Amino acid sequence: MLGEMAELSLVVAKELASRLRASETPEEAVALAGAFQKVTRVVRLTLALDAKLERDAVRDARAEAPEDRALEADTQKAEAAAAERQRQQALAERPAHPIDAQKDRVSRLLNRLLWAESEGDSDEYDVLYDDLTARLDEAARDPAFLDLPIEVLAGRMIADMGLSGVLTLSVGDAPASAPQPANSG
Questions:
Q1: How far is the C-alpha of 146 from the C-alpha of 39, rounded, in Å?
Q2: Alpha-helical regions (H) of 98-165
Q3: Which of 6, 33, 85, 147 could tie 46 with a disulfide, CB 3.0–4.6 Å?
């Protein structure tokens, strides 16, 4: 049933994308873009739920053997580490366009928060990460995007996504334009 829902949502998303490309007014384009975003989110969440249900069924079947639990935990950690390495590699290979760099900084800043919000569930993390990416792509259309500090952008993403965690900036997260401490020596 979830597969059928995902397929139907994908058909609707393709139709919305087609209509978006053919839109004649900015208002129509905005309305269609909003609808497209909502439908694609439904597709992502449906697929993530389907995958989670499959994983849960496999985990329940393995729960009878205690040694399998340790193996499953190690496998999940390895999968999460591999996914993070792929993300980091993809980030490293991206062009250094200022808008992409700004989106990458915000994404890296929120990465820990997304992981905490997903409570270590890699599929839920992927859904949140995809949602953040879509929201950053949308926010980047604003001409003032590059002028906003990353902590402001991150705060907006946290509010828009309804995340419950607290944003913590570290020295490495500070904006490039932040004044550097004077050497006293």
A1: 28
A2: 98-117, 122-139, 150-161
A3: 6
Q: Say how far apart CA 93 and CA 4 lie, in whole Å.
A: 36
Indicate whether 170 belongs to any domain. no
Contacts of 115 (CB under 8 A, 6+ apart): 125
Domain that holds residue 143: 78-163
CB 114 within 8 A of CB 128: yes
pLDDT in tens, 47-105: 888 888 888 888 877 776 666 666 777 788 888 888 888 877 766 665 568 888 888 88
Question: Is the C-alpha dihedral spanning 28, 30, 33, 35 positive or negative?
Answer: negative
CA distances from 127 to 12, 63, 123, 146, 161 (A): 20, 26, 6, 25, 11
Q: How far apart are the first and last CA of the chain?
A: 68
For residue 175, give the 3-state DSSP assignment.
coil
The two structure tokens encoding residue 143 = 């001409």
Q: What letter does residue 141 receive in the DSSP assignment?
A: T
**What is the C-alpha separation between 36 and 93, in angstroms, rounded?**
28
User: pLDDT digits over 107-130, tens only?
Assistant: 888 878 888 888 878 888 888 889
